[in-house]
Amino acid sequence: MAIMRGAPSVRENLFGGTGTVLVWDLLGGAIAPPFTSVLSCELAEAGHVGVHLQQRDAEIVIGVSGCGEARVDGRAIAFGPGAVVFLPFGSRLELVNERDDAPLCYLIVKATPAASAS
After folding, report:
1. Using one digit for the tens of pLDDT, what is the confidence trace for 32-89?
2. Fewer CB within 10 Å: N-end or C-end of the chain?
3. Contact 98, 80 (CB under 8 A)
4. Surface-to-core class of residue 69, CB atoms within 10 Å of its CB (0-12 exposed, 13-18 middle, 19+ buried)
5. Per residue in 4-42, pLDDT tens?
6. How deeply is 40 buried, as exposed, middle or buried, from its count of CB atoms within 10 A (0-12, 13-18, 19+)?
């Protein structure tokens, strides 16, 4: 079950994947450094979010409900309720909903990497 706040953004075939992803912005535009986004997502039955690069922020993805697989830099990780996947800046993520009868729901928390000390 997705955590919803307002109307979702509807994304089709995200990053070259298949199916619909509903996305709710849980920060609602608030500024909360170092966090840049807190998103609740629902990937449609048998959907797939294509491979994409973490270009600006580090990210954690937290499984809420459903059954799927996360692929981080090509490495497969079982993904479902309570699973936490860490994506350092520069890594690649792909998500697959393995169920054809239920969505895969997850949270994404993005944060700007801390500046390195000189």
Report:
1. 899 999 999 999 999 999 999 988 889 999 999 999 999 999 999 999 999 999 999 8
2. C
3. no
4. middle
5. 888 999 999 999 999 999 999 999 888 889 999 999 999
6. buried
Domains defined along the chain, listed by start? 9-111 (2.60.120.10)
User: 95 with 52: CB under 8 angstroms?
Assistant: no
DSSP state of 81: T
Amino acid at 78: A
